[in-house]
Design goal:
This protein is an all-alpha fold. Helices cover 60% and strands 0% of the residues.
């Protein structure tokens, strides 16, 4: 039974363990003679833990991860002679990864909210600029109409003024002509008398 579990390839080279395959170069160079005796999934070799004895089915060669002594616990990210990591190490790394992913997602949410706020400000600014352009266009049209009316009024005023000047000139010329005629008549009377 122990050989069957030891030779199982179910937990061989988990993809997550590839992250640390170069972490400890010395650990991968150890041979089988210098490695400690094969142990199980972190269970004590003596008295059983959780109902499992040290010589039970979970002990023996080729267990998933190398077990340290019960007082020491697992070593930090150190593989066993087969390059395998304990479940506790992998779970801790996964927990750290989840924490980092959660932090990144929080930053992404903040960035998204900031982007939405910036988009709202841009839309409001665009609407305000368009409204200002409309106001400027309306003011331009009103000023142009006012200038046209002023030009027409000035033209009318100029025509009326010229007409008055013509009438005055005509009246003056008529008076001068009558004066000349009177002078001529007086000269004739004097000459005849």
């Amino acid at each position: 039974m122990a050989n069957r579990f030891g030779a199982s390839s179910l937990h061989q080279r988990d993809p997550r363990s590839a992250l640390f395959e170069n972490y400890n170069a010395g650990a991968s160079s150890r041979n089988a003679s210098s490695s400690p005796a094969p142990r199980g999934y972190g269970y004590n070799g003596g008295g059983g833990v959780g109902g499992y004895s040290g010589g039970g089915g979970y002990s023996g060669g080729g267990g998933y991860g190398e077990r340290e002594d019960s007082a020491q616990g697992f070593s930090s990210a150190t593989p066993n002679s087969r390059g395998q990591y304990s479940d506790a190490v992998l779970n801790e790394l996964e927990s750290q990864n989840n924490d980092q992913v959660e932090g990144i997602m929080g930053k992404v949410r903040q960035l998204k909210s900031m982007t939405i706020a910036i988009g709202d400000e841009i839309r409001e600014s665009s609407a305000l600029a368009e409204k200002m352009n409309d106001n400027f266009e309306g003011a331009r049209v009103r000023i142009r109409g006012t200038m046209n009316r002023m030009l027409i009024m000035s033209q009318k005023t100029g025509n009326a003024k010229r007409e008055r000047e013509r009438r005055v000139n005509r009246a003056d010329s008529g008076k001068k002509g009558r004066k000349k005629e009177r002078k001529k008549e007086r000269k004739k009377e004097r000459h005849n008398g």
